[in-house]
Amino acid sequence: MMEAPHSSVNSPSVELKSLQLCDREATESADCDLRDDELPVPQQTRISSITCDSFRISWDMERRGREKITHYFIDLNKKENKKENKFKHKDVPTKLVAKAVPLPMTVRGHWFLSPRTEYTVSVQTAAKQPDGDYAVSPWSEIIEFCTADYSTVHLNQLLQKAEAIAGRLLPFTVFYRNQQKEYFQQDSPSYRSRDAQCCRMLPSVKDNSGSHGSPISGKLEGVFFSCNTEFNTGKPPQDSPYGPYRFQIQADVLFNQNTNVYFGDFYCMYTSYHYVTLVLAPAGSAGDAFCKGRLPALDRSNNCFLHCTEDDDGSLSFRHAQDVILEVIYTEPVDLSLGTVARISGQQLLSQSTVNAKKDPSCKICNISVGR
């Protein structure tokens, strides 16, 4: 039953726990039969306090017939489906029906709302009749809005799930990035993330792979690197989904005592192995400013995924988690002269690419209790 419990006088909450109409015995009926045109039409609908799985809604109404209202009908659709016909209250219920409560009210429900998703919403006022049917007003205007990214609270939930499966830490010495041969050639202007004249790899906007609500997707700029090693050799694998040519750079060039580490995402792609996305941002950089307040910060020498520790002789040692695949985003340009480029001997495994890959919404390991 979708009721609106009075959790707050100012903003009651409507939980989207079910897609059924309110229980007829649990609601009060209107005193007498009404015509639809006797109820006020919601006007000037306003959406506020938007999160990844909730929003507050309010509207204005004429005084005429307001005392007869017993329920609100809220028609909520993903924007791409906005051309579909609105539901009728006699049809199979697919939308929210809530008891009339003081406005604004909060609509909340992780089964219904997904992060970073455009929705349309329209509302009706309704009066329960003695026979159990409803008199309803015309629909209000259609309002469009977009839900928000995961908050740091949600990202910390993801972080805890990732920490649970990270496994032991293995040593590594280099970060590496695979690409096609043309990417590393000076006379190749087709790659926007490559500065041919200055021989630099440039930050580019992260794609939409991974969790739908991750605040770095489509916003954070950086250069992708890997650092996972093969268990038997301790070296980078000789296969890659991104290209047969590999740039390698000593780990301490990108990751040192001046580098801040942030957790960005945890996901899988309908497979048994999981990905953890980390951000390496030099302190005070634009990338560092972007991450502060948006992403959980990690202790560079004491976290479950990527360690940088200082030895007695002042040198740095590095370790990575064994049981997850780390995607490392470095937020600044990287000069190719600081590393080496060579062809790898393995295959290019295109099926393992994570470019715009969609997260498995049914995985119990890497999903949290909000919209995927």
From TrEMBL:
It comes from the Eukaryota. Coiled coil: none annotated. Residues 41-150 form the Fibronectin type-III domain. GO terms for cellular component: cytoplasm. CDD domains: FN3. Pfam families: fn3, PHYHIP_C. Belongs to the PHYHIP family. May play a role in the development of the central system. This is Phytanoyl-CoA hydroxylase-interacting protein-like. The lineage of its organism: Eukaryota, Metazoa, Chordata, Craniata, Vertebrata.
